[in-house]
Amino acid sequence: MNIYILCPVRNGVPIEAREYAEEMKGAGHAVHFPPDDAPQDDPTGNAICFTHLKAMRECDSVHVFWDVNSKGSHFDLGMAYALGKHVLIVKLYQPDTEGKSYVKVMESMK
Hints:
- The protein is α/β, with parallel strands linked by helices.
- The chain has helices at residues 15-26, 34-37, 46-58, 71-82, 102-108; strands at 2-6, 30-32, 61-66, 86-92.
- The chain has a 4-stranded parallel beta sheet, sandwiched between helices.
């Protein structure tokens, strides 16, 4: 399986996301892990977005470590939604809210 791991990057990569990426690779999956697989020295962010879009198009499933404060995660989730990707929530860093939410949208993307 080709997996895209959606996780915070800019303000620190969660250790459990990195461990999960290694676990998935060890299980034989191809993994796109944003902090390692996109050019983080990109001065505008355009190359990062393009790299993620290419990986998102090629993946079978998006595995999510969701931090509502991660702006890049919102962008990546939008790409997954637009491309009709299967989403698996691995970890939520904040509880879901009442009413409509991105968490509920992700839960419907199966």
